[in-house]
Amino acid sequence: MRKTVAAHVPMHAVAYARAMQSLDGIKMEKKSKRLVWKFLRNSKTDKFGALELSPGLTLHLEPLVTEVWDRTRVYLETRHEHLAVDPDILGGEPILKGTRITCQSVLGRIEGGETLDDLVEDYPGISKEAFEAALVYAKAHPPRGRPSAGKPWRKAS
Q: Which of 1, 4, 49 shows the shortest CA–CA distance to 143?
């Protein structure tokens, strides 16, 4: 049996991606993007403030990245509390601890139109935070391999 390790994206990379997404079509030079990357990577605090990219051009990072930074930090701190991977349970598929509910099934139900509150109502012994952790995990770790529904890229003749 081959042991696989899930990829890990550093918190500052999540903050950087959110900052770039928030610019909403504004083009930045590579040099400016590097400045933002280094600023976020070297930040020692949860308060980001502003970064002067050039005279007269300042990027206020605080409103752009604070929410995603806080959510990422909470997820990283609590994921081991709520999620488990055991090769003897569902072949090692990530699950909510103490259950056989997979992270991917939580994502499937959310994508199917249910809410986190619906899931908590269906499973009163499981916290909303646990479902949120499963949802984040499932979105960040999509299943590998071919789609189970055949080859959707091929059109029927």
A: 4
Would you list the domain boundaries of the chain? 11-69, 85-140
Q: What does each C-alpha distance from 152 to 6, 31, 113, 145, 147 come to in angstroms? A: 26, 40, 23, 13, 8
Q: Report which of 157, 17, 11 is spatially closest to residue 79, judged by C-alpha positions.
A: 11
Angle at 88 (CA atoms; ends 75, 128), nearest 5 degrees? 30
Q: How far apart are CA 65 and CA 138, in angstroms?
A: 22
55 alpha-carbon distance from chain centroid? 34
CATH class held by domain 85-140 = mainly alpha
**Could you report the per-residue pLDDT of 48-98, keeping only the tens digit for each?**
888 888 888 888 888 888 888 888 888 888 888 899 988 888 888 899 998
H or E segment and range at residue 96: strand 95-96
**Cut 0.85: pTM above it:** no
